[in-house]
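Progress against Task 2.4 (sequence-to-structure conversion) is shown through the following example record, which the project officer requested during the mid-term review.
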Amino acid sequence: MIKTFDFEVIPVVNVVNEILLDAKRRRASDVHFDPRPDGIVVRIRVDGVLYDYATVPNKFKQTVVTRIKIVSGMNITESRLPQDGAIKTTLEGVDLDLRVASLPTSEGEKVAIRILDYSMSVKGIESLGFTKSNYDKVLTMLKKPDGIILVTGATGVGKSTTVYSILQRLNTPQKNIVTVEDPIEMDIAGINQVKVQPNIDLTFANVLRSVLRQDPNIIMIGEIRDTITAKIAVRASITGHLVLSTIHTNNSLSTIERLLDMDVERYLLATALSGIISQKLARKLCKNCTKKRPTSQYEKNLFKKVIGLDIAEVSTAVGCEKCGGGFLGRLSIHEVLLINREMTDKISNGVKKEELRKLVYENGDVKTLLQDGLIKVASHLTTFEEVLKLIELEDGNSESQLTEALKTPAKTTLPRPVVQTGLKTPSLSVASTT
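Structure tokens generated for the chain above:
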């Protein structure tokens, strides 16, 4: 159900506050203010799915956008260029840490707000949903004194959560840890964190050169975006530093290829690379309303072929008062590659892609994203449909082949908030931009 606000009676300040508070309580990761000819459509993303939430009449369209720009530290007189801002405050006892971005469109300025949630990072690596074998491989990577560990995946799949969880594990008084980030998403006591500022030439590459003179044990780079950063990161990892970073690739094999495409020397990459953690996020079934059903013949065959198990039942989404759509939260699907001596030699010697694929996926004790996803389907944590929506099958089969097997579609009602609240909220404070 779309929420209605009486803009003639309720101040815009209170409406904006209520939207942000309610989005937080509904476990939303993003709030979108999408301009339309007749106003603004407000949409919230919960468990990876966008839902229509409210509408703003055309009369109050600019006022709402201006309010958000003011409290996020943006220039309200500039509407022709994209801008970034931040909001960090507490409303009604709820801590809000938001990243705000504006974008000029043909219908007016679009504003997107990312709601940062550090709860999973604070809980540690063991709370991230790794299987026992993958968890053990991650711990093996972290025991090495040097090398580079990469967390990979698309935008919004929890790479930062995984990286911060790893930093929490590594953070001890005996180690000097320096991070280079854009922006700093989570403040961690005992760690030296640097925010890059390209406008004053404080780039990833320039900061990294200085960091190496700060006697670090561990360096975290927010993201490897270009060739210069990649080369410095790799060279830092072979000179006695443990380097942790993220990169936008889909799996272990494509990560190695991407770094080679960035002109990182093969012998350096082979020596430096310790491990790769690739991940995606799937919606997690609500424990209060999940329903089991028999597997179809196609599903049985796929389970047997991919993970070697005979699975008679899987769970499907139903929907109840607590979840609203059959899903409650999200879980990670992982592919963890721990580099061994044979892989190091093959990468250094310029092995062909097909041979490297065989080495990684057939001889490398690696569970693919599909295998890990199906293991979690078999454990009744998510649905068959969710996994195949995220991961392409190698044999060319597609999600459409499961239509007959998936007879119970999940409802698409807006997830309920944890706590209902009124509109009496204090004004937001402007976040510091320093």
